[in-house]
Amino acid sequence: MDITFVIEKFILVAIIFGISLVIAMYSTYAERKVAAFLQDRLGPDRAGPAGMFQPLADGLKMFMKEEIIPTHANKWLFMVGPGLAMLTACIGTAVIPWGSAITLGSKVIPLQVTDINVGVLYIFGVVSLSVYGVMIGGWASNNKYSLLSAIRAASQNISYEVAMGLAIIALLLVTNTLSLKEIVEQQHGWRWNVLYQPLGFILFIVCAFAETNRAPFDLPECETELIGGYHTEYSSMKLGFYLFAEYINIFVSSAVMSTLYFGGYNYPGMDWVASVAGPVLAPLIGTAVLFIKIFAFIFFFMWVRWTIPRFRYDQLMHLGWKVLMPLAIANVIITGIVIAIVEKF
């Protein structure tokens, strides 16, 4: 194996991991600022200019707090839970194309860790694994509230993965590929998939809220019923891992939605920009465009949290099984019929 290839991938993984952590860290700051704006107040404003150092202060607090493990908890699984939640949150970034390849002379450097031909299935596999960190942490805590929260999270994830999978099936009927790189390349310029699959996108983003346990689907963390939910017994950086994993999941979900439905790093006029900017700067501009789309989705996650009240659990299940799933099935059927008509004529 070429050592240069290994070094390139290692550097790319390190950069993506660092960006994920920084975005997760400052998402906590953005969350509080968005909440403050919507509630007509200031939010964090003491630590640094405009409170910009607040995430650093919060992170230091997490490191400095006392580490407490309940006496009757399963100690090994209690430690594995938050680590697994953090791991599954981070590995989803491996198949996302962050930009077109950079050309340096005869050297072509792809801005993607790996382009596997089943990238969509990989993302779904990671999404399915993410619930295990919550389940293990809730069960190992030996706390009835934590266990009930973990059961809620598992049943919620299983329920909404069905509608999400059906939404993706309709998209795959249009794209005919499971590779995220090929899906992005098909959306060159303005040919974004959201124009062909508007209902599929709505279904996907609603399910993404449920999969990331965000309001109005944050029933696993319902304070009025379950104290803190599955991380009730956690403190110090173990609690920090759970909180960080949620924000990294939001970042990854936003990146996946931008890639599948909003063209990824594509934007109108990119061919002209590429001819002017050159083979190095043009891909970086595309990457910046992708991150603008991601930040827009992250803001939308936060806006919804501070606007819409939490569902009851029976309403959540009713929406997943009796509303979203029939709509997703209808979307697949309609998409198939339209494609068959177009191909025939």
TrEMBL record:
Keywords of this entry: Cell membrane, Membrane, NAD, Quinone, Translocase, Transmembrane, Transmembrane helix, Ubiquinone
Entry keyword annotation includes Membrane: yes
Membrane spanning stretches: 6-26, 76-99, 119-140, 160-178, 190-210, 239-261, 281-303, 323-342
Any one of the GO CC terms: plasma membrane
Catalytic activity: a quinone + NADH + 5 H(+)(in) = a quinol + NAD(+) + 4 H(+)(out)
Main location: membrane
Recorded superkingdom: Bacteria
Pfam families: NADHdh
Gene Ontology molecular function, alphabetical: NADH dehydrogenase activity; oxidoreductase activity, acting on NAD(P)H, quinone or similar compound as acceptor; quinone binding
GO BP of this protein: aerobic respiration
Subcellular location: Cell membrane; Membrane
EC class of the enzyme, as a word: translocase
Task performed by this protein: NDH-1 shuttles electrons from NADH, via FMN and iron-sulfur (Fe-S) centers, to quinones in the respiratory chain. The immediate electron acceptor for the enzyme in this species is believed to be ubiquinone. Couples the redox reaction to proton translocation (for every two electrons transferred, four hydrogen ions are translocated across the cytoplasmic membrane), and thus conserves the redox energy in a proton gradient. This subunit may bind ubiquinone.
Protein's name in the database: NADH-quinone oxidoreductase subunit H
Organism: Pedobacter westerhofensis
Annotated gene: nuoH
